[in-house]
């Protein structure tokens, strides 16, 4: 929606026709920017997922931590429960998440890495969204690229573990909190609820 704004001699009828400036309404500009940011975040998500799938989707890394989560997820699919049938040092969330991916896509390293790639791509997309919202899209792209480049350079970081799930949920919660309106009365209620749901 466009609105007219008068500058200069707004009170003088003779100059009103010459001094009208057409400016877009702030709300519609913000909504258009949010749509572009959403498309940019989706692009960052897909580009990150594609790159990481190419780099780490099927690559075997000899590290024992990943095997703990893969075996625990396989045991859950077989009907066992963490802490009752087998011992785990961390919370059961990652075991359950990997078990869901095993159930959906089959028991394979690629299925477990799909969860990892989803988590990392979600973090990169949220980093882009936050930087684009509070600074610029260019900074968002640089930040997301830098994050993915740091991970892509080290094979030991792109393995399934409990840190990626919790980090993805934390960054998603921060992104949702940043998108809630600041000036409404629901902020006092809405932000803590959103934080409890995500984190």
A few lines on this structure:
Helix content is 67%, strand content 5%. By secondary structure, the chain is mainly alpha-helical.
Q: Can you tell me the residue ranges where pLDDT is under 50 for at least 5 consecutive residues? A: 1-10, 14-27
User: What overall geometry do the principal axes of the alpha carbons give?
Assistant: globular
Q: The biggest beta sheet, please? A: 2 strands, antiparallel
Largest beta sheet: strand ordering = 1-2
Strand residues, percent: 5-15%
Give the topology string: H per helix, E per strand: EHEHHHHHHH
Can you give the helix content as a percent range? Answer: 55-70%
Q: How many separate domains make up the residues?
A: 1
Structural class: mainly alpha
Number of DSSP helical runs = 8
Structure description:
Helices cover 67% and strands 5% of the residues. It has one domain. Residues 1-10 and 14-27 have low confidence and may be disordered. The chain has a two-stranded antiparallel sheet. With 199 residues, the protein is mainly alpha-helical. It contains eight helices and two strands; from the N terminus they run βαβααααααα. The longest helix is centred in the first third of the chain and has 31 residues, at 26-56. It is globular.
Properties at a glance:
199 residues, mainly alpha, two-stranded antiparallel sheet, 2 strands, 67% helix
Topology, pairings included?
Layout: E1 2-6, H1 13-16, E2 20-24, H2 26-56, H3 64-77, H4 93-105, H5 109-134, H6 137-152, H7 162-179, H8 187-198
Antiparallel strand pairs: 1-2
Helix pairs in contact: 2-5, 2-6, 3-4, 4-5, 5-6, 5-7, 7-8
């Amino acid at each position: 929606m466009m609105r007219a704004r008068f500058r200069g001699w707004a009170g003088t009828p003779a100059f009103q026709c010459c001094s009208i400036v057409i400016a877009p309404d702030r709300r519609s500009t913000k909504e258009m920017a949010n749509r572009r940011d959403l498309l940019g975040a989706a692009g960052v998500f897909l580009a990150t997922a594609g790159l990481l799938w190419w780099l780490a989707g099927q690559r075997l890394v000899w590290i024992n931590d990943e095997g703990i989560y893969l075996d625990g997820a396989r045991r859950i699919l077989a009907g066992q429960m963490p802490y009752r049938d087998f011992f785990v040092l961390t919370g059961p969330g990652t075991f359950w998440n990997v078990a869901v991916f095993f159930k959906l896509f089959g028991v394979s390293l690629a299925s477990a890495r799909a969860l990892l790639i989803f988590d990392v791509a979600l973090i990169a997309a949220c980093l882009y969204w936050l930087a684009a919202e509070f600074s610029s899209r260019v900074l968002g792209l640089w930040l997301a690229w830098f994050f993915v480049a740091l991970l892509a350079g080290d094979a030991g970081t792109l393995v399934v573990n409990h840190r990626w799930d919790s980090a993805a949920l934390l960054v998603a919660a921060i992104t949702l909190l940043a998108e809630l309106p600041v000036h409404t009365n629901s902020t006092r209620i809405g932000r803590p609820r959103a934080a409890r749901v995500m984190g």
